[in-house]
Structures
1.
Amino acid sequence: MLAKLMSFFLLGLVRLLTGAQARWYGCPPKAEQRIYFANHQSHADLVMIWTALPEELRGITRPIAAKDYWTKTPFKQWITTAVFNAVYVDRERKGEEDPLQPLADALARGDSLILFPEGTRGNAEDPQPFKAGLYNLALRFPQVVLVPAWIANIQRVMPKGEVVPVPILCSVTFGAPMQLEPGEERRAFLDRARQAVIALRDV
Amino acid sequence: MNQFLRNLTPTQQVATLFVIVFGILAIASTAAFLMSFRQQSRDDAWHAELKDLRQLLRTSVYMVAVFWIAWVMGPAVANTLFALLSFFALREFITLSPTRRGDHRSLVLAFFVVLPIQFWLVATRRFDLFTVFVPVYVFFALPLASALAGDTQRFLERNAKLQWGIVVCIYGLSHVPALLLLDFRNYEDKGAFLVFFLVFVVQSCMVVQHVLTRRLKRPPSIPQVSGSFNWHTWLLGMVLGSLVGGLMSFITPFKPGQAVAMAFVACAAGSMGHLVMKALKRDRGVTAWGARGVAVTGANGLLDRVDALCFAAPIFFHSARWYFGV
C-alpha cells in the first residue's frame, strides 16, 4: 500500500520535473524478456528509465542497484526493494561468490533487467568503458533481447552531490536490439554496445 | 439584447461569454469535421491545411476549458494555474539553454523560490512589490548564488540566460492573473473579461499574421531571425488585432478608442516579443521550442504558444494601470 503510494508519488514527481519522455526509436515497448542498458550519470537514472517504461513493463522489469549505496539506510533499502523491486549487486568482488549471481537468478526467473554497464556514475560527455557484466549475461542468456538506451539531460536535473532536483526536460531513447555475435570477443562486444548507446544521443 | 446583457450580474455576464466562446468553437469544430469528408476535387495541401486547422481548434478548446475551470474555481485557482504554466514554460526555456553545474543552486532558487513568491505576491495583491520583486531583488540575488558557486566560466552569459528566462516565463506570465485583480471603477469582479480581452486580441493578431504569411507568400523581412516575418503582414495583423480590440470594448472598462489603443499596445508588444523569442531560438539553433526543434528534450512547444502573451501582459498591465490610475 505504502509502496504503491510512493510509486505514484515518484511517477508524478518525475513527470512534473522531467517530462520523462520515452522515445521508442529502434524497437516497440514489448513484454519480452529484455536487458535495457543505458548510460549512467545520476542516481535519478534508475527512476527515470523506470518512469519512462509503460506501466505493463514496469512490473516485470527490475533495475540493478549497487548494494553498498542503496542498502545504506532503511529508507533507501525500502524504496529499492518495495517500490522498484531492484536486484542488488556488489560492486566489489567478495571472496569466491560471483557478483553477477543475483542478476542471473532474476533472469532465470524470467524478469527483465535495467543495467548500467559503466558500473558507476560518470560526469564526462561520453560514457566510460563498459564493464564485463553485460557480456557475461549475454553469453549465459542468449535468448534475452539486449536493448540500448540513452538517457538525456538527467545529469542537469540532479548533478552528483546535489539534493534538490531542478526541472529540466529529459528523455529516454530506446534503440534497436543487439545481440552477441557468435564467437565475438568480450572487449569488441562491450565497445559495440557502448557505441550503440552513444549513437542514440543524436537521433 | 444589449439591455438584457447589462441587467445580468457580472458572474452571469462572464458565464455568457464562455457559453458564446464554447458555442463558436463547437460550430467551427463541427464544420471542420464535416469538411474532412469531402475528399474529391481537393488536393493534399488542402487536407493538410484542414488538419492544421482542426489541431488549432482542438488546442483552443483545451485552452478555453482551462480558462473556464480557472474562472469557476476563483482567482486563487486561476493564479495557481498560471503559476503552473509559468513553471512548464520556464522548464522548456532552461532545457534549451546550456547550464553548468554551478548554476544548480540558482536554478533551484528560480523554480522553487522566485516563482512561488512572485505568484504569491499576485494572489495577495501586493502590486508595489510584485512589479519590482524580479527586476530589483531577484536580479541581484541570482548572480550572487552563481558567484558563490565559484564557477566563472561564461559567467555573464549563463546568468543573462537565466535572468531572461525568469523575466519572460515568470515575470511576464504572472501579469496575466494580476489583471484579474485590478480594480477599475464600476468594474468589480469582471477581471476575467480583461484577461479574455488581452488573450483574444493578441491571439487574433498572431493568427492573422500566421494566415496572411501563408497566403501572401511575401519574402521575409529579417531572414536571419525568422523565415516568415514580414512588415507588411505584421501591419495587417496589428490593424486587425486593434480593430478586434475596439469591437470588444463593451466587455472592458475602456471606451472604444481606448480599447483600440490598448489592443494596439498589446499586439505590438506580443508580436515583437514573439520575434525576440524567435531570435533567441535561432541563437540556440532550433526553430521551435517544441518537438519539431530538438525532439530529444521532449518539449511540447508550450513556450511557442505563450511567448507573445509573456511580452504583452506586463506592458498591457502597466499601461492600463498608468493611464487609468488604478
Note: Chain B touches chain A at residues 87, 90-92, 94-95, 99, 101, 104, 107-108, 111-112, 295-299 (CB under 8 Å).
2.
Amino acid sequence: MDGILTGGWEFVWLAYGVSLVVIVSYAASIFVRYRAELGRCDREARREPEVRKT
Amino acid sequence: MLVLTFAFGCALAYLLRGGWEWETRLEAAIEAGIVLSALLCAQGAIWAKPTWGVWWDWDPRLTTTAVMVFAFLGILALRQFVDDPVKRAVWSSVAVIIAYVDVPIVYFSVKWWNTLHQGLSTPETVSGGVPLAAAHQCLRGAVPRLRDDRAADAAGAPAPPGELLPPPLSASGIKAAHLGVAR
C-alpha cells in the first residue's frame, strides 16, 4: 500500500463525460428557453398596439 | 448545496419581503440545484463502482441525497400544476423551506450515522497533502516531457524517458508534506 491508485481511467473518463453532457445540455436548454422567451416578449410587444387600436 | 441554500434564502426573502425577483431567483435556484444534485449522484455512483464495487448503496449519505433530489424535483413539478402565480410562489417557497431541512442532514449524515461513505470534506481533510500530491503527479509527467522535447530539439531524437522522474510520493510522504515535515 503506497497510497497511489493505479488504473480506473475508464471511470475518470465516464465521470468527465457525464459531467460534460449534463452541463452542456443544461446550458443549451437555458439558451433555447431564453430565445423562446425573447420571441414571446417580442410577439406580445407587437400585438399590444393592435389590442389598443381595437 | 450552496445553490439550494440560495434557494432557501430566496424562499425566506419572498415570504418575508415579497417581490417577484425573489420568486424568479427561487425557481432558477431550484432548477440549477436539481441539475447539480443529479450530477452529484451520477458522479458519486461512478466513484462508488471502483471503490465499493457497486453503483449504488442505501447508505445514509446516498439515501438522504436521493431524498433531497426528489424533494426539489417534486417542488419543480408542483409549480407546473398551480396556475395562480401568487399561490405558486407561496407554496413553492414553503415547500423549499420544508425540503431544505434535508440539506444539513445530507451534510452531517456521514458524521451522525455509521456509513460506508468517507467522512466530511473539510479544509483539514482536503488541503495541504492532496493538492501537493496532485501537483507532484503533474510534475512527474511534465518534467520528463519537457526534457524529452529539449533533447529532441537538440539531437533530433527523443532521449530515454524517466531519468528525471522524482520518486513516487507515498501516503506517509503526503502526510509529512501536509504537516510540513521533511521526509
Note: The mean pLDDT of chain A is 85.
